TrEMBL record:
Lineage, broadest ranks: Bacteria, Bacillati, Actinomycetota, Actinomycetes, Streptosporangiales
PANTHER family: GLYOXALASE/BLEOMYCIN RESISTANCE PROTEIN/DIOXYGENASE, GLYOXALASE_BLEOMYCIN RESISTANCE PROTEIN_DIOXYGENASE
Protein name, UniProt field: VOC family protein
Taxonomic source organism: Actinocorallia libanotica
Pfam families in the cross-refs: Glyoxalase (PF00903)
Domain named VOC: residues: 2-129
Cross-referenced InterPro entries: Glyas_Bleomycin-R_OHBP_Dase, Glyas_Fos-R_dOase_dom, VOC_core
Gene3D superfamilies: 2,3-Dihydroxybiphenyl 1,2-Dioxygenase, domain 1 (3.10.180.10)
Length: 133
């Protein structure tokens, strides 16, 4: 058993794909036409970190309730945790790409961590291994 997909509500598909693939370096696993339950057109868009089994379904907001959830997936808490092998290089790359870090890097017993926001306002932990002593 494994967790396959997690839904992330976004305001539009193409900017979301651009962020995940161009900035975070995820792979675009699927992008195919689909239909809502009531027959309206939508897309089935899945992005995953390279070689990962778990990914995101990028779901375009449909209606007022979903639109209100864009950028607030976890009610202001950190919603997503991106583990990287090279924290320093990843932090520098994301910073150079204009990703806003709202909590600067710090050392914790579980590793290096900094908090950034995606283009919609969701909070993410960038996590790396603990610094060598």
């Amino acid at each position: 058993m494994h967790l396959d997909l997690v839904t992330l509500i976004v305001d539009d598909y193409d900017p979301a794909i651009a962020f995940f693939t161009g900035v975070l370096g995820f792979d675009l696993a699927e992008d195919v036409p689909s239909l809502t339950n009531d027959g309206r057109p939508k897309r089935w868009v899945v992005v995953r970190p390279p070689a990962a089994r778990t990914g995101f379904v990028l779901a375009r907001a449909d209606g007022a309730r979903q639109t209100a959830a864009v950028g607030d997936q976890a009610a202001g808490r950190v919603a997503f945790f991106l583990r990287v092998d090279d924290f320093t290089a990843s932090h520098a790359r994301l910073t150079a790409a204009g990703v806003p870090f709202v909590v600067p890097p710090r050392d914790e017993p579980y590793g290096r961590v900094a908090v950034f926001t995606d283009p919609w306002g969701n909070r993410w932990d960038l996590l790396g291994p603990p610094p060598r002593s």
